[in-house]
Amino acid sequence: xxxxxxxxxxxxxxxxxxxxxxxxxxxxxxxxxxxxxxxxxxxxxxxxxxxxxxxxxxxxxxxxxxxxxxxxxxxxxxxxxxxxxxxxxxxxxxxxxxxxxxxxxxxxxxxxxxxxxxxxxxxxxxxxxxxxxxxxxxxxxxxxxxxxxxxxxxxxxxxxxxxxxxxxxxxxxxxxxxxxxxxxxxxxxxxxxxxxxxxxxxxxxxxxxxxxxxxxxxxxxxxxxxxxxxxxxxxxxxxxxxxxxxxxxxxxxxxxxxxxxxxxxxxxxxxxxxxxxxxxxxxxxxxxxxxxxxxxxxxxxxxxxxxxxxxx
Length: 312
Description:
This protein is of the alpha+beta class. The chain folds into two domains: 2-199, no CATH class; 205-307, Alpha-Beta Plaits (2-Layer Sandwich), CATH 3.30.70.120. The protein contains eleven helices and six strands. It has a six-stranded antiparallel beta sheet, with helices on one face.
């Protein structure tokens, strides 16, 4: 059974790797190469090298030449699974760019250069699927991960961001115009937004934490009106030294306004809420406890109280 799950998981990961690489290759060929700007990371460096060589060598070849030694180095530092999927991405992406060049596929004639920068960001942002499967699109992602293994105090995304913005700065000296730098900045911004959307779970939600004197009234509303469960924690006010209850609940985005309305009706109640990147497990509804509706709150050994039923 575990083997079947593992095979299914790896097949799904391979599917995402292939889709990401195809989208990236198409984006590089149609929206990057014909226009004078550099996207972030190794793709941007490849675009600048293409410009410096008089456009005689395509971006795909430069990508392959730069990523190959990085992947070899990564084999000794990073996980093999990471390297394998990243290599698959690189081979398919660069191979597709070369095939499109060999077949002389015509590119689009676009007068407004802002459009290719936006769509280049969209296609490159799709490479975030590689991060979801525990791999990367190569280039600065590999460099960032390798640096982070040696400098644990640094966040890998911050390292990648610094390297990406350095690429944008170099674009000014290669393409010789401020416009190319601004287009690169647009591409990076769109790429980051698309990547964030891809990495965000489809079951994204909002987590509420409510400090109240009357947890049962609040929880009654949560289960009856919002159709969600909650967890009650014991707390103590620092200023008043009075015992308090802290309710933790996760709800859908469209329920935020209704939740705020519930809180506004309660006296001596304070709440704050934050975005949740994703939700795993039973989120839609809590199964009622089979006790005739009498047992409303189950208390654990650590004093934590979990609302388990439909009727509090």
